[in-house]
Amino acid sequence: MDELRSKILLVDDDRSVLEMLDELFSDDYTTILASSGPEAIQKARENLDVACALMDIKMPDMDGIEANREIKRFLPDLPVIFHTGYPGDYLEDEIEATEKPFDYVLKGDSIPRLTRSVKHAVESHQLKHDNRRLTRYAEHNFGIVGKSKKMGEIYELIRKLSNCVASAVVLGETGTGKELVSKAIHFNSERRDKNFGILNCNHKNSDLVESDLFGHKKGAFTDAKDDRIGLFESANGGTVFLDDIGDLALETQNKLLRVLDTGEFYRMGDSKLRKCDVRVICATHRDLDKMVEKGDFRRDLYYRLKTIIIELPPLRDRIEDIPFLVNKFIQQFAIEERCRPKIFDEGAYDVLYDHDWPGNVRELKHLVEALLSLTESDIVMAEDVHAYLRRKPEREKKAQTLNEMVDDFKKETIRKTLIKTGNNRSKAALLLGMDRANFHKLLKRLELEDL
């Protein structure tokens, strides 16, 4: 049973406090006790899977701050909560800026405050561990790149969806990677050894779409010169990915609904009822809600599909992923074209951060490939990016009020500052000339708390 429980390291030089903490947490966690800084370091080395450390600060010989620094050398992602009874001896803002603790709890604070902090620290550690695994798996196997919080949420959804058989809808603007996410779900599921069928539904001729999906019998329509099996037969036992589902004709939507409900279908021009076992994942950049209201999309099919929805963020909402994406595209291009890789100057990245990215990740990939081909220097500079983007038509933006423009400027400035400080909010506040409390209020007002 203990193997399934998270380990937490409790550190305090006061034996009575240590025993109290052990009694408080031992029902929910495997507790590891240390009564000094050096002992804490040794216990951490012996338990590299520890999920959280609750660290007293004021201890003889080696205080908790020094012990934290030593532990972070070999466990850099370990969330550490400083727990002190001497708040006047240490400045919380200074500790926040220099040590980056997960939290800072006074010994006089309530028990629920302390237990909640430890719970959140353990959950954060587990989420980071799972997301790192999913991030590596997604990138190495499916080309999905990104370490932002938004992409971490997508990886977690991929993990959950891979363990069930329900249909799903992937929503997102053009170029956000809907097909890649669908492949990740399939190849991470028990259906991975079966076919993954893909169909783009935006054909103009509905007969061709139905033929691709259900197959046809010879003579079913003008160009049906031979019998043909469809996607649902060829992917039986596997997954079918339908892109641009919003473009399906209403009659075809009705046949798709039958497959989802019963697994049954007819080939075009054939009277034999056939069955299949497929998981259906759909994608669209269109607003299905509005299409349902207009009568362009079947309401019953919509509700059948929308059980599980994945909304992919546009690139402009996760600009912190741009360096990782650029690096990935540089490596791919260098391998495919057998050429020497180039680097992007910091000023070039600033231009990329400022761009609106109407074409999302696909547009960024094309930009990187173009600049690697066109730039004579081994370093891509800001002016190179500017020159390329000026050739691209800019998406029209709606008129904004002065306050809206100011808020947009503040949002972009905060995003860039957080990227530069590694998401350390105290450092970001200092760089922006703000105190920590007002900076947090600004984040809340601008709806940037999740960054």
Describe this structure in words.
The chain has 451 residues and is of the alpha/beta class. The chain folds into 4 domains: 2-126, Response regulator (Rossmann fold, 3-Layer(aba) Sandwich); 146-311, P-loop containing nucleotide triphosphate hydrolases (Rossmann fold), CATH 3.40.50; 315-390, Orthogonal Bundle (Helicase, Ruva Protein, domain 3); 402-445, Orthogonal Bundle (Arc Repressor Mutant, subunit A), CATH 1.10.10. The protein has 19 helices and 16 strands. The chain has helices spanning 15-25, 37-46, 64-74, 92-99, 111-142, 149-162, 178-187, 206-214, 231-234, 250-262, 288-294, 299-305, 322-337, 346-354, 360-374, 382-390, 402-420, 425-431, 436-445; strands spanning 7-11, 30-34, 52-56, 80-84, 103-106, 168-171, 196-200, 215-216, 228-229, 239-243, 264-266, 273-275, 279-284, 309-311, 343-344, 379-380. The strands form 5 sheets. Strands 2-1-3-4-5 form a 5-stranded parallel β-sheet, sandwiched between helices. Strand 1 (7-11), helix 1 (15-25) and strand 2 form a beta-alpha-beta unit.
